[in-house]
Every structure is written in structure tokens, then in C-alpha cells.
Design a protein that fits this description.
Elements (H helix, E strand, L loop, with lengths): L2 E5 L2 E4 L4 E8 L7 E7 L6 E6 L5 E3 L7 E6 L4 E6 L8 E11 L1 E6 L3 E6 L1
Parallel strand pairs: 2-11
Antiparallel strand pairs: 1-3, 3-8, 4-5, 4-9, 5-6, 7-8, 9-10, 9-11
Amino acid sequence: QVQLVESGGGLVQAGGSLRLSCAASGIIFSSYIMGWYRQAPGKQRELVASITSGGSTSYADSVKGRFTISRDNAKNTVILQMTSLKPEDTAVYYCNAIRWFGTRTEYWGQGTQVTVSS
């Protein structure tokens, strides 16, 4: 059974930091691109950051320079370090695993709430 379990969300004041963690099980973790998405109320889910198995990263323009994604293939975890948080970062953050081996295979975590107060 595949599981992506997020942790680390919470309430923080603007300018603060949070560290989100996603623990994966039931998949060959190193074969997946791992990503963090977020969805704010009334808005579409958007990609925040992603990281390949080899460590190549990509970020949404809105979080560049503030968020850092990293992964540990030995521990099957992916981390999103968030700094200089803004109220507009408030959203439910989801862990995502995706790969293409002939067909597309994708998994989602249950989400963790991040609330940034002004």
C-alpha cells in the first residue's frame, strides 16, 4: 500500500519559518519525482516545488529564494523548508510522487495545513 504522509504544518506569523516533511512508503522512492503542491481556498492546486531523484529542483516564482526542497532517498523523505513566510502562503500543502515508466503513476498525500498570520 502506497502512503505519502505529510507533517510539519501549522500556524506561524508572517516572516516565520516552517519545515514540512513527507514520508513515503510502498513505492520505489528513488524512481519518483517528488513535489509539493498547495491549494488555497477558492484557488486551484499549484506546484510549489519539485525535485528529481538526482536532486534537480524547480520552484514556483512566488517561492523562489524563500523555500527549499530536498530529499533523502535512503530515508524515503522529502522536505520543504519554508522561510520568510507570507500570508499568501496560507494553503493546504500536498506531497506528490510521480513517475513515467511507460505509463504515468502518481500518488498524493492527505495534505497538511499551513496558516500564516499577518
